[in-house]
Design goal:
The protein has 402 residues and is an alpha/beta fold. Helix content is 42%, strand content 13%. The protein binds pyridoxal-5'-phosphate.
Length: 402
């Protein structure tokens, strides 16, 4: 109430584009964030820096060759600019269905259903499958969209300690109804892998269903970029896989891969699928072309893995690194201002590395999130690791990494 009164008193100073009282209330919250160093801002980043932060792991987003292939096919198909409606109304097309059949083949499954993004695909699966008396168990480091999807469902939901199968089993023992376990194949902030073989055995023991988010493994793992479950031959033991196309595939969108029944169920019950305009024809052509392009350019996966190995071989123990052999590497630099400063030093050295602040990650676990790419040159990777080693020695304005 007090805030409301102050807002009214100073209302006439506020923006003319918004109700002045609401404007002030929102500004108060923003200013709290600013004072605690947590204000988020949009920045346009220079393309002149060496890219160690985008999710374009294989360079497909930046590939003009792929861009031309997409343009030619879009023109040839005579597709309209937009999809014009939800898939259940005017937004469906023969090409969308052909692409889903193609994706199902690439992903070694019976069916696939396209979504506008990985965020909405996770919301769809987690909000539609578990019901009121069911239980969702999710890894504590799971992406926000897994947690948001679980929150949208009516099921009970609990987190388990990151990659900790004992803690998961303790929670499985107490779970009721149908049990859904939600994990990622490669964790987006740590780059480490989930222990999928152990997880599938445990899930089998408790008749639990696994929902696997393959956002950071799609494209970089498995034949034709089919992801971790296929690479390990465990795909038939997963109830639903979410593959996103905005990362290594360099385009946009996502799909859920699973059985025909699963796909029919999502078409009928998943609100994030039903109540939205379908992906544009251009988008769908791009997804199709990106997978075909990757099949012809298998060496991109090898080039990425060579850069990961070079990074691991040439960084000394630069602080609390997570055990990752993926494209995502992290160096923990506790404290928002310390990690921001460390990133600024790297950027001034021509290296585009971004800080990840709390509360996106737990306080004390703020980090430099380094993404390696197929297109980074060995010289760029060495320059990065030398800079990190120098930071670890505290040789840059006294900034250590601990
Ligand atoms: C693990 C994980 N899942 C899902 C998403 C969301 O995917 P999209 O960007 O396609 O919405 C992301 C992207 O940030 C992610 O890292």
């Amino acid at each position: 109430l007090c805030c409301f009164v102050i807002a009214r008193q100073t209302a006439n100073k506020q923006s003319k584009y918004m109700n002045p009282i609401l404007d002030l209330l929102l500004r108060n919250e923003l200013s709290d964030r600013e004072q605690t160093g947590l204000l988020r801002r949009l920045t346009v980043h220079s393309k002149n820096l060496s890219d160690f932060s985008s999710n374009d792991y294989l360079g497909l987003a930046a590939s003009s060759e792929l861009g031309e292939i997409i343009e030619v096919l879009v023109r040839k198909s005579g597709a309209e600019n937009g999809s014009t409606g939800s898939r259940l109304l005017t937004g469906n097309s023969a090409f969308a269905e052909e692409t889903e059949a193609f994706l199902a083949r690439v992903l070694h499954t019976e069916a696939a259903l396209l979504f506008n993004s990985g965020y909405t695909a996770n919301l769809a699966v987690l909000s539609a499958l578990p019901k009121r008396h069911d239980t969702i168990l999710y890894d504590e480091l799971a992406h926000a969209c897994i947690k948001d999807g679980a929150r949208l469902s009516m099921a009970k939901r609990f987190s388990f300690r990151h990659n900790n199968m004992e803690d998961l089993e303790t929670k499985l023992r107490k779970s009721t109804g149908n049990i859904f376990i939600a994990v990622e194949s490669i964790y987006s902030m740590d780059g480490d892998e989930c222990p999928l073989a152990d997880l599938t055995s445990l899930a089998h023991q408790y008749n639990a269903f696994i929902i696997l988010d393959e956002a950071h493994s799609t494209g970089v793992m498995g034949e034709e970029g089919s992801g971790m479950a296929v690479a390990l031959g465990l795909h038939n033991r997963i109830a639903a896989r979410i593959h996103t196309f905005g990362k290594a595939m360099g385009v946009h969108g996502a799909c859920v891969a699973g059985s025909e029944t699963l796909v029919n169920y999502l078409i009928n019950f998943a609100r994030p699928f039903i109540y939205t305009t379908a992906l544009s024809p251009h988008n769908i052509v791009s997804i199709n072309c990106a997978f075909r392009y990757l099949k012809e350019h298998k060496h991109l996966q090898d080039a990425l893995h060579a850069n990961v190995e070079l990074f691991l071989d040439t960084t000394r123990d630069v602080g609390n690194k997570t055990a990752s052999h993926s494209a995502i590497q992290t160096v923990i630099v506790p404290g928002n201002s310390a990690v921001r400063n460390a990133a600024t030093i790297l950027q001034r050295n021509g290296l585009d590395v971004r800080p990840i602040l709390s509360p996106t990650v737990t306080r004390g676990k703020e980090r430099l999130r380094i993404c390696l790419h197929a297109f980074n040159t060995p010289a760029e990777v060495r320059k990065l690791t030398e800079a990190l080693n120098r930071l670890a020695d505290g040789k840059n304005a006294g900034l250590g990494l601990y």
